[in-house]
Predict the structure.
Amino acid sequence: MSVRFKPGGVGAVAMAQVLSSGRDNADQLVAFSAGSILNIAQGKFGRGVSHREVQWLAAAGVDYGAYVVRADAPWENLLQLAQQLQADPSSIVFGAGGTVGSQDWMKTALLFREQRLDPKQMRYVAFEGGGDSLAALLGGHVDVMPGDVAELVGLLGTNKIRVLAVMSAQRLGTPFSQLPTAKEQGLNLVWPIFRGFYLGPDVSADQYLWWQSRFETLHATPAFITLQRQRGLLPLPLAGPAFVTYVEEQAQRYERLAREFRLVPQ
């Protein structure tokens, strides 16, 4: 397998190349994350670029957002933090990877919206990535990191952090089964971070079906499930039309949020 990295714009450079010179290349799988769909919803992939430009193929797995604090933080759960936000939105500093409109910013904005607060009131520090924001959290430079559970695998049980809530509809499996969800604390906050693959728009139906069947087999393979767990991912066994529907649902949600948070022209 030949792997080529195409950094830039959370997948924007990779998609531009596919649309210009790899439209019918059935041997070119492109890896992406939910951040790509979110950026497309905000027009960051270029004027007129839609999430329907390519053929979404299959999921690699899913991660979930999480609100993380230091182990010595004054909040035992997310509800306590939310109550402090209500009393004084400027008293808590959030820090994570990505600027305004990124996934981590969105997680914070959703928490503010849940408390009927304007996201413009948030104190949010943008870092280069999850490693930098985690270091800032542990160093006491920010109070809360709206991160991903996959980032936390190596820190669970170390008495360095406390996960106030996971942004999943129900509790996750091992090694995250002891982490409470936001929903069980009465806060309707869900944020899946899915990863997957797509093909160029002109790849034939037969070639697409060939890949779809391979991923459907892969999703049921114990070795692949073990590999997902080692990377902090959870199974999302979707391929073909089922995955296309899932991506479409998430894209529509991102578009609604982009309008609500005034990240795109009204």
